[in-house]
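Worked Example 4.2. Consider the chain below.
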Amino acid sequence: MHIRHIAGTDYQDIIRGLDDWWGGRHMTPGLPHLFFTHFQPTSFAVEEDGEVRAFLIGFISQTDPRQAYIHFVGVDPRYRGMGLGRQLYTRLFDTAGARGCSEVCCVTSPVNTGSIAFHRRMGFDPLLGDAEINGIPVHRDYDGPGEDRVVFRRPLTVDVLPDR
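Applying the procedure from the previous section yields the following structure tokens:
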């Protein structure tokens, strides 16, 4: 397996199986083709035998160029637990740091306990929100009515923590 920059040609293959990767949840609206076209320098795919096994869509903020943002990450369920997410995040950290970023931000759903645990292992801290769910700070209606999110921030000076 190797990591490379995402390509526009990856879009159809990833979208075709994306909802299955999330157990049938309808995730494709959150991943329009424009990310595969306009954010290639900060977005990556893990490829094996010509197939994408994992990907990360990231970008440098237009509002604050010191900040990178991770928009979407997916790992084929058959390849989870192999460190692919960690490798993708590390690649983005290195790329963003080389482009002058000092921090990386991202969001996840408060019900996605696996994602919350992963982000904490990767050195992210949840930002204070306007509510708390199961001890986690949450930003209510962050992505619209009923779309609460945990907002994470990670300075790029933090070392990635070892696997636990």
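The mean pLDDT is 93. Residues 41 and 93 are 13 Å apart (CA to CA). Compare this with Example 4.1 before moving on.
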